[in-house]
Amino acid sequence: MKKRDTIVRYTAPERINHWITAFCFMLAAISGLGFFFPSFNWLMYVLGTPQLARILHPFVGVVMFASFIIMFFRYWHHNLINKEDIFWAKNIRKIIANEEVGDVGRYNLGQKFVFWSAILLLILLLVSGVIIWRPWFAPAFPIPVIRFGLMLHSFAAVGLIVVIMVHIYAALWVKGTITAMVEGWVTKSWAKKHHPRWYRELRQKQEKSTE
């Protein structure tokens, strides 16, 4: 692949940020499933021992939240809903059939849904996690609040796992997406096909910088 035929989609700091978040999610999700289902207790060994997992799980969750907050401030302005997203949603059948529709910017509506769902669920996980975090914070809350926190934490965790599964499936479905997050680049033809408005915006910036 000739360098002139590719463009940068994600810089090295962006990719590192993404994979730190992904790694922490995997650790937190796997160990969390071990807490939630007795038959999955063996999953807690991903963090050492069950006892160590109970200590480390919330800290891993905090690191994941902090890493995603950095991603949030990097990308929130690219994930605002616009009229092209409405057109994209109205043509969802074509999307399912692997057709590209609309003048998509850096992210399409599906990617924006994953982004906003993730930040909402992570906030719920952080708040509920603090409430149930023993021995540090849980003693400050009454038992009914802790019980509600446990329920909220469980539902938010399952919701986030589902959202990330959709994210992974979409990344595998659209050829070139994984390369973008691993190596940082995409081909110009990929950008024009999947994100035409984003490609035009990049070209305009390049033209202005060379003037």
Outline the structure in words:
The protein is an all-alpha fold and 211 residues long. It has a single domain, classed as Up-down Bundle (Fumarate Reductase Cytochrome B subunit). Strands 1-2 form a two-stranded antiparallel sheet. Helix 1 packs antiparallel against helix 2, helix 2 packs across helix 5 and helix 5 runs antiparallel to helix 6.
CATH superfamily: Transmembrane di-heme cytochromes, Chain C
Number of strands: 2
- Architecture, according to CATH? Up-down Bundle
| Derived structural class | mainly alpha
Q: In what range is the share of β-strand residues?
A: under 5%
Side-by-side strand order of the widest sheet: 1-2
Percent helix range: over 70%
Dominant shape: elongated
Cα Rg: 20 Å
Task: Give the end-to-end Cα distance, rounded to a whole number of Å.
Answer: 28 Å
- Mean of the pLDDT scores? 93
Q: Tell me, what is the CATH class?
A: Mainly Alpha
The CATH topology is given as: Fumarate Reductase Cytochrome B subunit
Q: State the helix count.
A: 9
Tell me the count of domains: 1
Q: What is the chain-wise order of helices and strands?
A: EHHHHHHHEHH
| Major beta sheet summary | 2 strands, antiparallel
Poorly predicted tracts of residues: none
GO molecular function: electron transfer activity; formate dehydrogenase (NAD+) activity; formate dehydrogenase (quinone) activity; metal ion binding
InterPro entries: Cyt_b561_bac/Ni-Hgenase, Di-haem_cyt_TM, FDH_cytochrome_b556_subunit, Formate_DH_gsu
Protein name: Formate dehydrogenase cytochrome b556 subunit
Pfam families: Ni_hydr_CYTB
